[in-house]
Write a structure and sequence with these properties.
Elements lengths: L1 H23 L2 H7 L39 H5 L6 H9 L1 H4 L13 H13 L2
Helix pairs in contact: 2-6, 4-6
Length: 125
C-alpha cells in the first residue's frame, strides 16, 4: 500500500512539474512571436524607442516608465505594473486593457503565443 501511495505521489508531482513548465512558456518560441512586435519595439538593453517604447526589462516595471518615450495619457494614468498577468491581458486585447492606448496592435489570440512572448520578455528583463 505504501508503494502505491509513493507512486501516486510521484505521479502527482511529475504532473505538477509538467504543467508549470508548460505554463512558463518557451522563450525561443517567444522570440519568434516577438517578430510581430519588432516593427514598433526594440528589446535590447539600452535599445532605442521606436513607434513604441523599448521593452527591455518590462516585466515587473511600471507602465509608462521608459525614459524618453511619449506615452498616451491613458497609459500614463493607468497605474499598471507589468506583471506576467497584466502583460497577458494586455497582449490579448491592448485597447480593452488600456482604453485609448496608442498601441495599434489588435492582440494575440493564442494563449501559447502569449506565454511564449512573456517568457522571452522575462529572459530579456
Amino acid at each position: 500500500m505504501a508503494k502505491i501511495a509513493t507512486m501516486a505521489l510521484g505521479l502527482v508531482i511529475g504532473l505538477g512539474l509538467s504543467l508549470s513548465a508548460a505554463q512558463a512558456g518557451d522563450a525561443a518560441a517567444g522570440k519568434k512571436v516577438f517578430k510581430k512586435c519588432k516593427a514598433c519595439h526594440t528589446i535590447d538593453a539600452g535599445g532605442k524607442n521606436k513607434i513604441g517604447p523599448n521593452l527591455h526589462g518590462i516585466v515587473g516595471k511600471a507602465a509608462a516608465s521608459v525614459e524618453g518615450y511619449k506615452y498616451s495619457k491613458a497609459m500614463q494614468a493607468s497605474g499598471i505594473t507589468w506583471t506576467e498577468e497584466n502583460l497577458a491581458e494586455f497582449f490579448k486585447k491592448p485597447k480593452k486593457f488600456v482604453p485609448k492606448t496608442k498601441m495599434s496592435f489588435g492582440g494575440l489570440k493564442k494563449d501559447k503565443q502569449i506565454e511564449d512572448l512573456i517568457a522571452y520578455l522575462k529572459e530579456n528583463s
